[in-house]
Structure formats: C-alpha cells, structure tokens
Amino acid sequence: MNINVFEMPIDFGASRHGSDMGPSAIRLAGIADKLTSLGHKIVKYDSPMKISPQELEEQGNPKAKYLVPIVKACTQLAAQVDESLKNGQFPLILGGDHSIVLGSLAGVAAHAKRENKRVGVLYVDAHGDFNTDETTPSGNIHGECLAASAGLGLSELTNLYFDSQKVDPKNICFVGCRDLDPGEKRLMKESGVTVFTMSDIERQGFPAIVRQVLVFFKTRADMVHVSFDMDCLDPMFAPGTGIPLPAGMTNREALLLMEEMSKTGLVSSAEIVEVNPILDVRNQTAILAVQLAARLLGETLY
C-alpha cells in the first residue's frame, strides 16, 4: 500500500498544551520503519500545516477558541487528504489535538462525494467531541470537531473545505466513551450516532462489541475513516495524553479493534491524536500509537 503520512503539530483546540509535539514523538517511536517493514511504501511524509505559533494568534470567540488558525490548518490538511485519496494512497494523519479531524473528514468527504461513496467513521475516544458553540463548557474546538463534521455548529466549521455536511451522523460509531457532557450527549442521541461506552464493553465483553462494530460498517459504508484518540485508553497503558481518565480500554482491546478493522478492507484513512510527550513515560504512549497504526495497516501476530 502507498501511504502518505501527514503530521499535524497543533494543540490550538485543547486547554492542555503539548500534543503539538505528538507527531514528533510518534516519528521518533519508529512509525516509518514499522510501516515499511510491513511492505508499505511511504510516498510522502510531510506536514501540510502552515500557520503561526499559538502565541502569535488571537483566541477570538470564547465559544470556539482559535477558530481562525484551526480552520486554516484543517483546510490545508483537507486538501492533502483529498489529493491522497484521489491518487489511490492511504492518508495517515498524526496529531496534534483532535480538532484535526475537521480537516481529515473534509478531505475524505470531498473524495467520497466525487466517487459517490458512503463514508463511515469509527471514533475511538473517551469523549464525544459532539458539542457545539451553544453547548460547549470549555470553548475548545477539539470538543466540537465531530459535531461540526456532522453538520452541527458554527458555519466556519461545518463548511470547512466545502459547504456541506461531511458525514451522516448515522454512519458514525463511537467506541470507548466514558466522559460525555450533558449537551453533547443530547445532540448525539438526537443525531442518531451509534455509541459503545465503556459500560457497554463491561456488560457485553469486548469481542461482542467488536463484532457489532464490524457489522455496522459492512452494512452502511464503502470507505471508513478511523479516528483514534489515545485518551480512550486507560492511563496505565497511555499516560501521555491531555485528558487521562481512569477505567479506559486496555492496550489489548485497542490492538484487537484495529486488527479487526483492517480485515474489513474498508478502512481508507486514519488519524491518531492526542499523544502528549510532556505527560508521557519513556515515550510509551507514542510507541503504542505506532503499534496501533501497524495493526490497522495489516500487522498480525501470526
């Protein structure tokens, strides 16, 4: 497979800084060598992001902080993702905070629209990221990014790259949620997204959840974008992330999910976000990010 790796060193969308160094940490953890060892070819390894440092930008709207630079960076990313897919290449995006999914999904959606394909999104995250400027308790855009991709919220976000909804919320599947704000929870229920929380995992067992996820995408998507936030994992396995919460997924569960998604043949793009080296221990979160990418792109144990 021909792969384009895009680094998005941005943490404008979050309150806690340091995730802008995540792409470097993942690179130093050996992402390029790992992918090439699996037989893939890295056609491009670059950062499409050309914006000023956060200290030189205005925060702006307190309900959508740093809206202007985030829209600029994500529009740059969208163009590169769109171009990658048009050329038959797999875009792998390394964050950065989760606001970058605005650009990833805009690029994916633009390509899918031309090809008349249905887009599905696997969102592996402790949080919903389904707030809008009206429901957000923080004003951080990394908590509004998926709602905007589903057509909810500020027009600057919903119309990023092109004027239209990027993904039908009924084609979004969450796995691993364990911290949802009241407003976003209401929006998620109204929008019809599918959610498998940590409580669902405890009740049903992880293999049963994975089987339901696979059926979900096989019945409603021609191409799937995987958006993986490292905070879905328990801090025991991924301490280097901006919002660590107890009682998360294990590394084994996450690796299994990526391996099973790979086997569907539907995954056309992916991103791994919220690696924060400042909070990490011996780069173990970045190393796990590399392992997750490898499983998603075909690595198996036997």
Q: How does this model look, in words?
A:
The chain is an alpha/beta fold. It has one domain (2-296): Ureohydrolase domain (Arginase, Chain A). It has eleven helices and eight strands. Strands 2-1-3-8-7-4-5-6 form an eight-stranded parallel beta sheet, sandwiched between helices. Helix 8 (198-204) crosses helix 9 (206-218). The longest helix is centred in the first third of the chain and has 20 residues, at 67-86. The chain is globular, with a radius of gyration of 17 Å. The model has no long low-confidence stretch (mean pLDDT 96).
Strand arrangement within the widest β-sheet reads 2-1-3-8-7-4-5-6
Profile the largest sheet: 8 strands, parallel
Question: How many discrete structural domains?
Answer: 1
Structural class: alpha/beta
Radius of gyration: 17 Å
CATH superfamily: Ureohydrolase domain
**Inertia-based shape:** globular
Distance between termini? 20 Å
In DSSP terms (H or I, runs of 4 or more residues), the helix count works out at: 11
CATH fold assignment: Arginase, Chain A
Tell me the β content: 15-25%
Helix content estimate: 25-40%
Spans of at least 5 consecutive residues with low confidence:
none
Element string (H = helix, E = strand): EHHEHEHEHHEHEHHEHEH
Question: Mean pLDDT across all residues, rounded?
Answer: 96
How many β-strand runs? 8
CATH architecture: 3-Layer(aba) Sandwich
